[in-house]
Amino acid sequence: MAAQRVVTTNINGTQKSFLCEPRQTLLEVLRDNLDLTGTKEGCSNGNCGACTVLLDGKPVTSCLVLAVECEGAEIETIEGVATKDGLAPVQDAFLENAALQCGVCTPGFIMSTKAMLRENPNPTEEEIRFYLAGNLCRCTGYDKIIDAVQDAAQRQCGTACSNET
Ligand code: FES
Ligand code: FES
């Protein structure tokens, strides 16, 4: 076994140091070392988006990021999306629009949606489909996910966005 390294990050707003081997991915460390199992493993080769987390605010497939690369980084995972007051608007929107079935893809979609709405609070359907093209879903057929993302944008942006269109 290779020598373990200490990596210090901020995960969901909390300073976190962990030990990992240089070969371990961020996905492995989140799930196996830190018990943050909300981030899902689908393909493990960068194709499905199920493992998406935000690294310094940008969506990444955590199966393609080495944990040692995350020294000093801010990481956001699905566990940090809800607040003590309850689910976040994007989570409510996915639930109320029936945008999930098995749910394996859902954490990745929600993290990508959060990143997109920070960059573009009022995306068009085409922009949503383009931004989320790296997140695959085998169950829903995507339309309900698009509805949920549009709903989430409205919930977060409200009348300001309605008045733009
Ligand atoms: S598990 Fe990472 S992209 Fe599929
Ligand atoms: S809800 Fe099953 S893969 Fe998307």
TrEMBL record:
<dbReference type="InterPro" id="IPR051452">
    <property type="entry name" value="Diverse_Oxidoreductases"/>
</dbReference>
<dbReference type="InterPro" id="IPR036010">
    <property type="entry name" value="2Fe-2S_ferredoxin-like_sf"/>
</dbReference>
<dbReference type="InterPro" id="IPR036884">
    <property type="entry name" value="2Fe-2S-bd_dom_sf"/>
</dbReference>
<dbReference type="InterPro" id="IPR001041">
    <property type="entry name" value="2Fe-2S_ferredoxin-type"/>
</dbReference>
<keyword id="KW-0560">Oxidoreductase</keyword>
<keyword id="KW-0001">2Fe-2S</keyword>
<keyword id="KW-0411">Iron-sulfur</keyword>
<feature type="domain" description="2Fe-2S ferredoxin-type">
    <location>
        <begin position="5"/>
        <end position="81"/>
    </location>
</feature>
<dbReference type="InterPro" id="IPR002888">
    <property type="entry name" value="2Fe-2S-bd"/>
</dbReference>
<keyword id="KW-0408">Iron</keyword>
<protein>
    <submittedName>
        <fullName>Carbon monoxide dehydrogenase small chain</fullName>
        <ecNumber>1.2.7.4</ecNumber>
    </submittedName>
</protein>
<dbReference type="GO" id="GO:0051537">
    <property type="term" value="F:2 iron, 2 sulfur cluster binding"/>
</dbReference>
<dbReference type="InterPro" id="IPR006058">
    <property type="entry name" value="2Fe2S_fd_BS"/>
</dbReference>
<dbReference type="GO" id="GO:0046872">
    <property type="term" value="F:metal ion binding"/>
</dbReference>
<dbReference type="Pfam" id="PF01799">
    <property type="entry name" value="Fer2_2"/>
</dbReference>
<dbReference type="InterPro" id="IPR012675">
    <property type="entry name" value="Beta-grasp_dom_sf"/>
</dbReference>
<keyword id="KW-0479">Metal-binding</keyword>
<dbReference type="Pfam" id="PF00111">
    <property type="entry name" value="Fer2"/>
</dbReference>
<dbReference type="GO" id="GO:0043885">
    <property type="term" value="F:anaerobic carbon-monoxide dehydrogenase activity"/>
</dbReference>
